[in-house]
Amino acid sequence: MADAQISSLRATAHPLRLQMLSLLTSTAMSAAEVARELGITHANASYHLRQLHDADLVVVEGEERIRGGMAKRYRHLVDRAESKLTDEDIAGQVQAMCAELLRRFPLRQKGKGTFTDAEVWVTPEVWERAVDLLVEASLLVHHEAKRPRTAGTVPVNLTVAGFRMEKR
């Protein structure tokens, strides 16, 4: 496995880094801002942001002068081209997604939402349409994400895993 793939796998397989990627989808933030939002130390946030940057999962969108120093502002670019993921990469991401879903589930509010689980047989055309709709929903929430706690917004979870299975 290439070094870049290993770095990406390690970066995305950590639940805290998945939280950071979600947070940085909506806006560029400094390590101090990420630390405050996630309730972690500045040093911990800086470390994990460096790991994400080294794995090419976040970019430095700018810098700002803060108390005599320079603070980098990081952002996760959802539309950035992804490298081909190995089965190992995907397995690590699935484990991290499951951990995040378990962390977020107790925070759910009653009301509109959806839960679904399906292991079914459909035509290839139906499957293609379903995948297109899942991608559309994912891009919608990522592109419309706002800075945390922006007036008029609510926190939401969207965890999607859709894949074609081998015939048994």
Automatic annotation (TrEMBL):
Name of the protein in its database record: Helix-turn-helix domain-containing protein
SMART domains according to UniProt: HTH_ARSR (SM00418)
One Pfam family cited in the UniProt record for this chain: HTH_20
Statement: the UniProt record of this protein carries the keyword Transcription regulation: yes
InterPro entries: ArsR-like_HTH (IPR011991), HTH_ArsR_DNA-bd_dom (IPR001845), Metal_resp_trans_reg (IPR051011), WH-like_DNA-bd_sf (IPR036388), WH_DNA-bd_sf (IPR036390)
Species of provenance: Nocardioides bizhenqiangii
Domain of life of the source: Bacteria
Keywords tagged on the record: DNA-binding, Transcription, Transcription regulation
Boundaries of every HTH arsR-type domain copy: 1-92
